[in-house]
Each structure stands twice: as structure tokens, then as C-alpha cells.
Amino acid sequence: MRLFATSILLALAFALCAQQKPVAITLPDVAYPILGMKKSPSSKFLFLTLAGGRFLLYDISKDNLSENSKPLWKNLSINGFVLGGDAEFSDDEKYILVSEQNASYTGDKVKIKPVGINVLDAATGQVVYETTGVNSAQFLRDNSSILIADDEGVATFNFLTKTKGEKKMIESCEIACLNHAENLLSVSYDAERDQFKKEEGAGLNKKELKNATKTKKLIRFYRYPSMQDAGIITEEVDVVFRMQYTADDKYLLFFSRTKQAEHTHTTLLNGIDKTRDLNQFQRIRMEDFKVDNANFIYQTSEAMANFDITPTSTLFSYNDNRGFFAGKREVFVTNFAEQQVIVGKFTFQGRTKTRNLYQAALTFTNDSTLLVANGLKLTYWDFTKLPDFVEYIEPVNENAILDQAVAQMDDDLQNPESSLSKSISKRGISGLYLMNITIQKSGEVVSIFAQSDEKTNISMQNLLKDLILKYRFDVTVPKNERIKFTYTFNL
Fold first, then answer.
1. Does this model's pTM top 0.85?
2. Which of 70, 179, 238, 465 could form a disulfide with 256 if both were Cys (CB 3.0 to 4.6 A apart)?
3. Which residues contact 366 (CB under 8 A, 6 or more apart)?
4. How far apart are CA 171 and CA 394, in angstroms?
């Protein structure tokens, strides 16, 4: 009887473990990598941004996404947004603001490169407003206006009435962010040398001052809309690319990047030219305008790292890139109140030097589940049950034939003098193409399946397929066997 009871308990335990394992799903309308996702305030809608300016909206109010889920609409006519976009819903969920993902600097001094933005009608996906040359943008509480920051300052714009508000001039303005109460404006800006003298870090050290003037920023706060000076942080920060207040306005989150030599070190984990602390998430305590590094700072090698925070500000999630040689991307869930307390880690594992790993997209669906995506697949991950989970995006077992074939393709694409590169250049082929390639016998290609959608340049894709069908891999595949693999061409 005891043996029978023990068997039942073990069976139940194994069954529970089996139920906990998340299963990756592929949406039928997703043919290009998912680079960003945003859930609406009521959790009714999920907005996806794909590579190459592809936007899709799903209704998730009744159930989780599945292989049968269809979007309410998809807009594949968007210009730009090659690297996806950061999205925000208006409070009434009638509009979606999308800003281009930006990892670029510009000018003699290190500063952000302006981007394009679109405002979409959430009911139809149609563009209501679009413009370029923007440093940052956000919705205002009236649900019909946005606050836009550029190099000269900030201004409001009502996209329904096409009315532009008075420009608030701010010298050397970069990113701006208004709190939820709309009475305090934070601005990252390019400060002068004398201002850095007063800050912690640079102080009166001439070398540090020179470096700060060239590569660092300050964040100032203004009463809004009067623009009266409210204060300034007491230490310099790196170039700010994004800012966001927590729901209670107690903290200002920001994502920054640096190019300083002092931060550079070599690690094979991320490749020879990678730095572990190039990018970082930090927060500012709004009660005293202090950069709260003692309680919150997370570094990442992802140049355009995604992040999300729960409405109650209890959990924070971000993604990391472990590098070309590691072949892995990671998503972390952390405790927002306790420094470096990792609640969960989700790893996307590929082959070494894989071309099939992308920046992970993520959003909290509740306080125990995170929806994560890499490439074309999405996964609902319960980090309370599986705090350390690995999803293999391709076979990672040792396969000398496959390694040799992929390495050959890599080398030929990187060598402008190779026959393949010359043929691609001669035909003017460019773009992102995901192909499943099958080879056999003496390395001949026997079949190719290419992902595509209505925005795909089919003529270019066919030209590339013809070239790869004629391509010969310098490998020998055992008799009656075939080697199949996925290869991402980013041309």
C-alpha cells in the first residue's frame, strides 16, 4: 500500500513539473523577429513591434495568446522602425505612441540621435500622426496630446486638432519626461564644465571634468508648466536614452549608455569588442533627486535593452546579451525594492556564434508571469515556479558538419571578395531574411524555406534563394542523411 501511495505521489509530482514547463508558441501572422511588446493599461491589448516597421495588435482580455491567435489588425506600411519601437498606450487606450528604437549617437559630443515617432489609432492601426527629429515623446493625460522633446526644448502637440503648444526652451535638451501628476518635468541635458565641477564624481579633477564634459549628462527637474527650477541630480550620468516614472511618481527610471574607455574590458563571454557595463538601468529618488545606485542599478550588454515594471513597482524586468560566443540572450526579473535580488532568469540558448538570436522582448502579464519573445516565438513564463529556465532556440548538440557549414556561410558573407558576397552585391540584395536550409551528400542545397509577409521584398528574397540553392557547402553529409538549419541573413 505504501509503495502504491508513493508511486501516486511521484506521478503527481512529475505531472506538476511537466505542467510547469512553458511551451513556446508561434503566431501565424508573425514572420519577422519580435523586438518589442507593450501591454495596455487595462491588460486588454498587447501591441507587438517587429523588425522592419511591422506593427500588430492582439486582444488578450479573454485568454493567453496561442497558435490560433489572430491580430485585431496589423500595419506593415510603416516607414523606418527597422529595429522595432518602444510603445505606449494612451490612458483611454484609444491611441498607441511608438518611438523608434535608438542605439545611436550623433555630433561631436556624445549625444543621442533623434528618431521618428508614430501615433496610431488603436481601433484600426492607422497612423494618426507621424514626425521625425524627436529625442523623446510621451502621452499626456488628455489622451489627445503628446509631449515632444528635441534639442531646443519641449512642446506639446495635440494630434487631433493639429495644435502645437508653446515651446519651453531648454538649452542642450535631450530626453524629457513628465511625471504622472504632470507637475514635474525631468530633462537630461548636455551640461557645461562649470556645472560638472559641482557634481559628485567629476568634482575639480581636470581629467574627470574633461571626460564628463565630453561624455556625461546631468538631469534637471522643472516645475511644470511654469518651468521653475526644482532641482538637479548631484552626480553625472551617462547618455540617457529613455526615462520613465514609476506609477506612484516616487522614482524616475532611466536607461543610459557610455563609450568611456574606463569601462572597457575584454571578455570572451561577450566577444572581444563587448563591454559588460556599457549600458545600465538606474533610478532617481524623487524625494531628494539622488541617483539611487545603492539600491538599484543593473548593467546589460544589450544596446537597446527592453524593460518592464509591474504597476505596483514590486518587480522589474530587463534583458541582457551574453554575446556572440556564448550564443545566449537572457531576461531577468528582479525585486524593485532590493538591490540585485534576482527573482527569475529566462535564458534563450542558441549555438555558439548563432545568427538566430535577437533582442528579447518582454512584458509582465501579472505578478508571477512574464511574456517573453525571441525571434518569432513567444513564451508565457511563470518565474515563481521556474525561476531559472532555459529555452533552446535551436539544437545545441555537437555537430561538426553543421558547425562547418554555418561557419563557411558566415565567412563568405563577411568577406566582400567571396563569390557569394559579390553576387549579393551585384544584385543589390538587402534586408532581413530568415531561411530554413537543407543540405545533403557533398554539401549541395536541396531545399530552402523562407519566412515572409506582405512587406517582404519577394523579388529580392527570391534572388537570394536562387543564390543559396546554387551554393555548395564544403562538407560531406552521411548517406541517406540531411542537415537542416535556420540561418538569418541580415544584408
1. yes
2. 238
3. none
4. 50
What backbone torsions phi and psi does residue 16 show, to the nearest 5 degrees? -65, -40
Contact 299, 310 (CB under 8 A): no
Nearest in space to 112 (alpha carbons), one of 291, 361, 251, 304: 304
Place of cell 518565474: 383
> Which residue from 198, 231, 201, 196 is spatially nearest to 214, judged by alpha carbons?
196
Q: 290-323: per-residue pLDDT in tens?
A: 999 999 999 998 988 999 999 999 999 999 998 8
pLDDT tens across 341-355, in order?
A: 999 999 999 998 899
- Please give the C-alpha separations between residue 141 and each of 94, 146, 178, 186, 349, in angstroms, as whole numbers: 12, 9, 11, 17, 41
Beta bridge partners of 333: 317, 344
Give the helix/strand (H/E) hosting 206: helix 206-215
Residue-level length of the chain: 491
Give the pairing type, strands 307-309 and 315-321. antiparallel
The residues, any chain, with a CB within 8 Å of residue 7's CB and separated by 6 or more, are none
User: How far apart, in whole angstroms, are the C-alpha atoms of residue 347 and residue 360?
Assistant: 10
Q: Any idea what DSSP says for residue 262?
A: G
